[in-house]
Design brief:
277 residues; alpha/beta; Rossmann fold; eight-stranded mixed β-sheet; 8 strands
Length: 277
């Protein structure tokens, strides 16, 4: 089900946010789950597998597109959107839910989730291939080594799209080498630009403050992730005093990879272990 929520901006205008939802067939006492996408993505990345699967398991499932992403409204200055704006989007959605949800935050969405949790508590949160505790400097340096001209173009134009600007680059960043080319093509055409300010926030200005987070976390990573390495995921987990878990042979977009169900099942199992069901 696709619908939109509206909220007032500081300037007096309204912001329309895209929400995709899937509800269980019968009554369920389980908490809702809110899925948060990463950079270059939108709510669409959860729609194919995770939303229907979690709904079938009894969880009312929602996926949000941040402002300027998917079918959500974009502000006049797209490149000026920051992580704090995305945190506001999450807060607006959660405030309108009938009860506090569990959050699953992927990549940039994992950072936004952590920033939201610095001032709010939820039943639980899952960080899926999340921005590392030290930010995206390591990722940026790896891109600089592999594609120096692309990184130069990013900084000259203040646009992040060149990083994923071809099917080859999209596969390199997000998917396994054996991903069906037709699927890579489908997902590539859904990729979009990302805010340059959000990039700077992920680099320096809006890094997580783990000492302010009290919500229970599950931290998951992918063995073949070229965006955030296993070492970086381990560093994040260590700061929270958590042992991370990794999925063999998987790349960054764990919710779209062939092993997506294994990832979903581990989240459901962990929620059950925590008594969140």
């Amino acid at each position: 089900m696709l619908f939109y929520w509206y909220h007032m901006e500081k300037g007096g205008g309204t912001m329309k946010l895209e929400i995709i939802s899937k509800k269980p067939k019968g009554a369920s006492r389980k908490p809702p789950i809110l899925f948060i996408h990463g950079a270059w993505h939108g709510a669409w990345c959860w729609e194919k597998y995770f939303l229907p699967y979690f709904a079938d398991k009894g969880y009312t499932s929602y996926a949000l597109s941040f402002r300027g992403h998917g079918n959500s409204d974009a502000p006049r200055s797209f490149r000026g959107m920051g992580i704090s704006d995305y945190v506001t989007d999450i807060a607006q959605v959660i405030d309108q839910l009938p009860e506090k949800p569990v959050i699953v935050g992927h990549s940039m969405g994992g950072l936004v989730t952590q920033k939201y949790l610095e001032k709010n508590t939820l039943p639980a949160a899952i960080l899926l291939a999340s921005v590392p505790i030290k930010g995206v400097l390591g990722t940026t340096l790896r891109i600089a080594c592999r594609h120096p001209l692309i990184l130069l173009k990013v900084n000259l134009t203040m646009r992040l799209y060149p990083v994923v600007g071809s099917q080859k680059l999209t596969r390199e960043a997000f998917f396994s080498e054996d991903m069906d080319p037709d699927m890579v093509k489908e997902y590539f055409h859904k990729m979009q630009d990302e805010s340059y300010r959000a990039f700077l926030d992920m680099m320096f200005f809006q890094l997580p403050k783990p000492d302010k987070v009290t919500t229970d976390l599950l931290i998951l990573g992918a063995e073949k992730d070229t965006v955030f390495t296993m070492s970086e995921i381990k560093q994040t987990a260590a700061v929270y005093g958590i042992t991370p878990e990794f999925f063999k042979g998987m790349a960054h977009d764990m919710m779209l990879e062939k092993g997506w169900q294994e990832v979903a099942d581990r989240i459901i199992e962990w929620l059950s272990e925590k008594g969140i069901e």
